[in-house]
């Protein structure tokens, strides 16, 4: 099931989502060895950031709610990690974020020089220059950050979108027009809140958090479906994918690759191989290939 993705050969269609595991070569290598075709680092920010206080993650049964808060050592404090990763033998996405267009640009330019295979920008962050408005819900602010980053990097650019966008297809098209090479969708859904009724207090220390896991899969599938109609660049479909059948579904919506995050918690680090095997079995039983089913949900009946 090897696949060509933006000029790189991947061993399969599985992608580790950003923020699930750390940035050490050892853990990312282990993910790759357990069946993941493309691994994403934890997001790298412009300055050291501790993230939110515990509790930050709550399991809700059909998914999770989290407010981790994008903890990062800051892009200037990762030399040991980069030195180790320089000797990697697996394809790597470096994820970056910022609070302004300039911060995205500065961090992405620095990270690009470390030679990841791809850079992903998470535009679900608030824009400090626009009174905290989320970059990815506005067409112009999305274009501004994508074009600024594209100017200063020399690797393909993936843009990770938020389902909060009122028209995610339009945002994806704006990113494509600004130079994005691929789209990743979706980030967490929300924010949501869980209250402990005995203490009458929100369970998360930050009170509000993003939803992930199986309960958000229908939203992810719809978003990928809308994006596929709007753009001509590849899509990494992400959000609630836990089984091979889930992966088939989001590929039918239009995804080229399949991202996995919360399912690492539910099914173990070898979930990538399990999902790949389940996909293969489903396809084999029907004498189909990935290309046969990609975007199949868009065909007129």
From TrEMBL:
Q: Which SUPFAM superfamilies would you find in this protein's record?
A: FMN-linked oxidoreductases
Q: Which gene encodes it?
A: pyrD
Function description: Catalyzes the conversion of dihydroorotate to orotate.
Q: What broad class describes the main subcellular location of this protein? A: cytoplasm
Residues binding FMN are: 18, 42-43, 122, 160, 186, 213, 239-240, 261-262
Source organism per entry reads Desulfobacula phenolica
Q: Which reaction does it catalyse?
A: (S)-dihydroorotate + A = orotate + AH2
This protein's name:
Dihydroorotate dehydrogenase
Q: Which GO terms describe its cellular component?
A: cytoplasm
Under NCBIfam families, the record lists: PRK07259.1, pyrD_sub1_fam
Q: Which family does it belong to?
A: Belongs to the dihydroorotate dehydrogenase family. Type 1 subfamily.
Alphabetical keyword list: Cytoplasm, Flavoprotein, FMN, NAD, Oxidoreductase, Pyrimidine biosynthesis
Which CDD domains does the UniProt entry name for this protein? Answer: DHOD_1B_like (cd04740)
Key word Flavoprotein present: yes
Give the residues annotated as active site.
Answer: 125 (nucleophile)
Q: Which PANTHER family match?
A: DIHYDROOROTATE DEHYDROGENASE (FUMARATE) (PTHR48109:SF1), DIHYDROOROTATE DEHYDROGENASE (QUINONE), MITOCHONDRIAL-RELATED (PTHR48109)
